[in-house]
Every structure is written in structure tokens, then in C-alpha cells.
Amino acid sequence: MLDLLGETMKRLDVIGNLSRDLTRYPDDRGGYRLGGAALFMSLAATEAGRRAAPVCVLGSDLAHLPEAHGLDTLDWSAHIQVDGASTTFDLEYDLHGELVGVGTDYGVAEGLTEHALRHVDLHPRHTYHVCCRLPLNVAAVLDRLGGNGTDFSVDFFLPSAETVIRAAAPWLPKATTLFVNAAEYRLLEQVIDSTTLPEVVITDGPRAAVVHRFGRQVASAVPPPQPPCEVSGAGDTLAGTFLAHRSQGATTAQALAAATEAAARYVAAPSLPIPAPRRG
Predict the structure, then answer these.
(1) Around Cβ 133, how many Cβ atoms within 10 Å?
(2) pTM of the model
(3) What span, in angstroms and rounded, lies between the C-alpha atoms of 239 and 45?
């Protein structure tokens, strides 16, 4: 029983969306693919050796994902499936990989907050990562985690970051780690004193990623140069890899180096296609 409990405690429960995405670039890169921060983070953490479970809501169109080849390595015990369409994102990027337009239909993910709160109540001692983006009621989820004294980390999504960071601010000093890009970090500094934050991982595209601890830089790593094929999900890959390595005893510098390398490999790789349901 103790071994089973210990294994459960090591799992990373990732609260967020899984989606059907269309990514578009001016040079005709992109296309239809699986997406969602909960998926990319869970896959990256699993690849780096940490058991991970997406806490998500799947619609009828993605109900087959838990049995799909390449995704059956994940722990799917924390998801629910409901009738209806899954979340869809239309993501438009410029040639430098900067997001310039987003179209969204949240679909069944409108029920994510209720599912996440129920899951947290059932498993208050698990370790969580919260993908702080709509339609999740971030304040409600972080309040529940913070009130329970639960270990949790967070990240954001730039199009909604200004609103969501303000909503999340009261609980951010309790987070073990925050993941932001350079633009999100500037928004963060407008609403909270960065010296109150235990750990902030700041990415900046192909430039150096850095880690701040209570406002002081403690590590940096320059991603290996890779021609980008797909940037959507790169930040989630970095975050999942970083958390996995830290949970296994890596230093901050070691975890950041591994995470930037994983993100660089990801952007050079083909997109994750939407698997067809198995027949029979």
C-alpha cells in the first residue's frame, strides 16, 4: 500500500485543455493537429520519466485518444468524456513564431472547472500543474489548491494572460514554479512583486531561458538552434520536461538545460496528427 501511495504522490496532474488545433504560418507551415497545454505538458513529463495525467474534458470527437498509439503512455485516469465537441483553436503565427491571432471554440471544456475542482477534492495530496487559461476559472481552482496546501505550478497563455494573471495573483506566491514567456513576465511584474515568487521560469523564443528565485536569477540556458517547424506547444514541452527533471532530483540548471533541449527538439519535429479511431 505504501508503494502504491508513493507512486501516486509522484504523479503530475495537469489541469487544462485538450483540443483540435489549426496552426497557420505565412510560409504555409502548420495544419490540423492535436493540441492543448494539458496534452503537451503530460506528454513531455512522461517522456522525461515522470508519470503524468491530463485532468481534462474530452468531447465525443476525441473520446478515442486514451487508446490511440503514442498517447497510451499517459495516465488517462483523471479525464472525463462527455457528449459534444472538444475545444478547437485556430492559431495564426508570424514568420518569427509570434502568435498574432487566435480563434477559439471551447466546446465541452466549459465543464473543465467543475471537473478540476471535483478532482482536486478527491485527490488533495497530488501534485498539480494548472494551465491558467480560459475557460478555466483560475481563481476558483487556485483557491482550492492553495487552501489545501497542495503543491502546484502554473503557466499562462499570452492572449488571455493579462486578465488571468490578475485573477491568479493572490495565489501565485504559493506556487512552486511559474512558467511565463518574456511578454507574460512583463505583465506579471505589473501586478505582483517578483521577489515574493519562489521560482519563475522565463522563456524568450530562441533566446536564453532564465530561472528567477525570489527575484534573483539562478540559472540560464540558451536553446540549441533548430529550424522551427511548429512552435505551438513548445512552452508546454519545456514546462513538462523541467518539472519532470526537478522531481527526479535534477538541479535547477540541469532541469532548465534539459527542458530547453526538449523544446528545441519539439519545434523541429512534425506536428502531432489527430489519430483516427480504431476500427473494431
Answers:
(1) 20
(2) 0.92
(3) 8
Cα gap 50→34, rounded to integer Å: 21
36: closest CA among 133, 152, 101? Answer: 133
| Burial grade of 135 (CB within 10 A; 0-12, 13-18, 19 or more) | middle
Amino acid identity of residue 262, one-letter, is: A
What's the rounded Cα separation, in Å, for the pair 173 and 247? 20
Q: Which one-letter amino acid corresponds to residue 10?
A: K
Reported as a single tens digit per residue, the pLDDT across 179-204 is 999 999 999 999 999 999 999 999 99
Per DSSP (E only), the strands in the chain are 12-15, 19-24, 30-35, 52-55, 57-58, 80-81, 87-93, 99-105, 127-132, 152-156, 178-181, 200-204, 207-213, 216-221
Number of DSSP helices (H) and strands (E) in the chain, helices first: 8, 14
Please give the grid coordinates belonging to residue 239: 514546462
Q: Which candidate, 198, 133, 194, places its Cα nearest to that of 168?
A: 133
